[in-house]
């Protein structure tokens, strides 16, 4: 078949593989047809046809009137009306009629939308535009083409494009017209398991009739899981009570289905698996395939698109099973890390290799072999720990405190034969652990801190002096020295940060010992009470200072009016110009001098600090002004929490004194040390962020120099290069910098949209968390996590994925993927906290306890299963989140 007009292109034409002409669906079908796969013949009404129709119907004017504003339902409705309210231009109509005639007289066809932003590796857009099945007759085909064009502007399609950052003015639509397969059996096939991520599995859903029944969810299909060796691991027969069949004269109808027996024989399963593997090999990536078997038994492919939800896996994984732990997720970051931020992590990881395990690297910029960058996040290969007795014992116990859900997943891997213990790994890990204890001077420093907390704090101050009192380079220092200093600052994270752990670690150990000593007198609620309003916590101190500033602003009419009446971004610009009312200008400047090194996602060196952009801080201050109940004031609550903690300690001690006075005296001393030491756990993070902030400043200076040399378009482009590339750029050895930066920015924007990041990822793509059973005994609708801060509260949920520009009303339940210190100003007005990540001693849990708000952490899928406005109850002692509908 040949091209009929410029608006029509046959699927077997080589030009039909051009995305810009035929869209994602059409290009994929043409690629399959060219490779010899069984694809029904047909043609495309290409994007030139859509553009001509759009111009003829006035769509261009509709879009021009909308300008660059974020599209809404009104725009979508006007666009649909423009495309459906006018006939198809005559030249295009004639071409479509001619193309349809070449397929046969009144042959049934499927008419499918194929957008240029569809079925792409990064975004599938599945189901966003319309498909019409069993279309018969030229007039019906033309009507279906017009309705496909209009479906580009459904509310859901417009909203989806806006969500994924695709310009509404740039998207185009082609329409695929194919011979209809009168399917006896049809379904979908995934060449990788879309739930667990395992790349070696094939997953098949099948049902009698047209595949639309399976795709639309109209039936419960047969579900088949096939392992890489061809073994059928699971065959679940669906009810298949309904089938969708072609109707005489056009259209489809629902008829009674066949519910008995299996739909697929073993031979058919093998044929489908083999076909799927061939399609995957053709496209070079796992595929989501639609297939159909007609009345003659012939197998047809009707669609193939990439599986966009799979998490990237290591490309050099070899045949040995490996397990990777996401370090950045454990640190509270769901979002991706900039290239320069990942480069900094490599240097930090190299320091850990040197300081903890005695393995220095020739070039720290490369990072140790265990370090991996996957999906622009930092992972660490924990396979040696899994295969060693010491690692199996210690790692889950540490994670029980810091990231409890990951500990559950990790324990599930211990029983996996792929991670059986190996002698060499046991010895290596054990020696490394002992060496780390000695190199970090853990025993003597811990003893010093436990006996004399003030001496421990002085030790922290001495260790943190390089971060707290930077020695600046002289003005005019060569830019290469700036880069050297940035790398030196990053390199100070190790040994500085881990040497701080032994100072506060005795507090955690004494808390555990106190629980054993007190027995029944100290249950989980009492333990949380001891940890309320801890002294010496730099993060809660920062939050209280911000509250104090809000209190001063409240008393100043001019400052209060400006803060309440202008957008935070505008206020930030005015602050940089020195144009805010004096109380706000001076108070914010003083706050930023102390805490301007901090930020949301602050462990990413590539992200701006609050001193660079105080928009978030100003938004939090404005939020604080809405808190008008004096009893809920954070400073009042903090003081009340300190008194309650003292009372809790006294109550526990009195309970033990009735049995043993010496034991009670020892317990009082232990709990006193707990309160003096545990709050110091935030100090090492503060010093680390100070180092990164200084390093960021130096790298920013290098970026400005590269702009002056004409190598970069903007100074902040430098943060989308790694440190090795920056050094080569200074030597004029790194070429095509603008192209590299543009691609990295595009990749970063795509990864920002990823809502799910695996806690642990196996080298075959499996996410073992998907295989771990949920908590037993949970009622339907309950969200179960780890108890983090005792107490119960009921309020409206507020799902926040990024705290910048976030709005949290006093008393609302903050629901977040995770939190770092940049989030904690929101805690001061939150009624409760629910996090997808974390353990009882993760950052969010500690701060929640200090502020006395109920918290549950490690709640899988919380930001998806809860929606803003849901009325929920958070039971921090039980680790339970329950919706109002469940309670009723």
General description of the model:
The chain has 888 residues and is an alpha+beta fold. Helix content is 46%, strand content 14%. A hairpin with a 4-residue loop joins strand 12 (287-294) and strand 13. Helix 19 (479-491) packs antiparallel against helix 31 (723-730), helix 23 packs antiparallel against helix 26 (582-595) and helix 28 runs antiparallel to helix 29 (661-677). The longest helix is centred in the C-terminal third of the chain and has 26 residues, at 683-708. It is globular and about 95 Å long. The protein starts with 7 loop residues before the first strand and ends with a helix. The model is unreliable at 1-5 (pLDDT under 50).
How is this structure best summarized?
The chain contains 35 helices and 25 strands. The strands form five sheets. The chain has an eight-stranded mixed sheet. It has a six-stranded antiparallel sheet with strand order 9-8-7-6-12-13. Helix 4 (73-84) packs antiparallel against helix 6 (138-151), helix 21 (501-518) packs antiparallel against helix 29 (661-677) and helix 25 (568-576) packs across helix 27.
